[in-house]
Amino acid sequence: MKRTETKTLALMAMYCALFVVLDRVSDVLNLFKMANGGKLNFGPIALLICSYHLGWKKGTMVAATSVFLQLVIGSVSWYGIASFLLDYLIAYAAYGLASLFPNRSYFYSGILITSVIRLLSSTLAGTFLWETPFWASLAYNASYMIPTTLCAIILVPLLCERLKKIW
C-alpha cells in the first residue's frame, strides 16, 4: 500500500472517530433533544469537514461508515430497514456530498444543501413510517435541524480555513 493511501485511510478513520465522539458529546451535553428522536448534533461537522478535505467520494464513504459505527455502539434508534435508511444512512451520507457544491467566501453552500437533504429524508421517514402529516413532520425535524445547520454554517468554514494550513 502506498504512503498516500495509508494516510488517506488514517484520515478517514479519524473523521469516523471524530463523528462518533462529537455525536456522543451532543448526547452528554443534551442541549436540545426532542422527545421522539432528533437533537442538536455536532457530529455532522466532522462529516462536512471530511467532505471538504477528502472530496465527496471519500466523504460519503466516511459518512456511511459513521452511521454503521453508530449502529454498533448503540446510539441509533431505528424501527426497521426503511427507518434506518431514511433516518440514518441517507440522511447522514448526504453530508459526504457537501464538497460537490460551490463555496462563496465563508458561505459553504454544501452545508445548507446537504442539511436540506437530511431534513427531507427525516421528514419523509416521519410521514411514511410514523404516518405523521408532512407539515408536522417537517416542523418537528426542522426544530432540531435548523440549530444543527446553523452551528455547521458557522463552525465548518472557520475550521476549514484553519485546517487548510495543515492540509
Q: Please tally the β strands and state the result.
A: 2
Q: Order the strands across the largest sheet as they lie in space.
A: 1-2
Count of the separate structural domains: 1
Q: How does the helix and strand content classify structurally?
A: mainly alpha
Strand content: under 5%
Radius of gyration: 16 Å
Mean pLDDT: 90
State the order of secondary-structure elements, H for helix, E for strand. HHHHEEHH
CATH architecture heading? Orthogonal Bundle
Distance between the termini: 21 Å
Poorly predicted runs are none
Jot down its keywords.
about 0% strand; Arp2/3 complex 21 kDa subunit ARPC3
Could you provide a short overview of the structure?
The chain is mainly α and 167 residues long.
Describe the structure.
- The protein is mostly helical.
- The chain has one domain (3-28, 40-163): Arp2/3 complex 21 kDa subunit ARPC3 (Orthogonal Bundle).
- Helix content is 72%, strand content 2%.
- The chain contains 6 helices and 2 strands; from the N terminus they run H-H-H-H-E-E-H-H.
- It has helices at residues 3-29, 43-54, 56-73, 81-93, 109-128, 134-163, and strands spanning 103-104, 107-108.
- A two-stranded antiparallel ribbon has the order 1-2.
- Strand 1 (103-104) and strand 2 (107-108) form a beta hairpin.
- It is globular, with a radius of gyration of 16 Å.
- The two termini are 21 Å apart.
- The mean pLDDT is 90.
